[in-house]
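FAQ: What does the model actually see?

It sees only this:
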Amino acid sequence: MLLQKDKFIKAGIPYEDLDIEMIDIIDVLNFKLNLKTSNCCYGHENGARLMVMFDMCVTDKDIYPLAKYLCDKKVSFNFNKYLRVGNKLIENWILEINSMWNKNNTDIYINNKEYHVRNILNVLNEYS
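And it is asked to produce this:
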């Protein structure tokens, strides 16, 4: 069995560039749910949200069943479609957690954010 890091590298995911807090979520999305991601951010600045952007190959048909499942589970997520116009229209789905954290209260910030990351991971694993 491949180690997590090796699995990421083999799939072309830059393991060393990922926020460490996001690695397990990215693992589930890419390898259990087959929803290819293009980037993510744990949201380290005040007011920043946890975010995952999906690859352009992830379609509405891929996202809607997951969104419905999360809605049924009453998980607080946003799915947004990011559209860019250049030579052609480029679209990506983005998954964001609806909470923002204030780093000024460190204990609450860390515990609350870690709780949400564990919750996201658990729900995504249930869905898989």
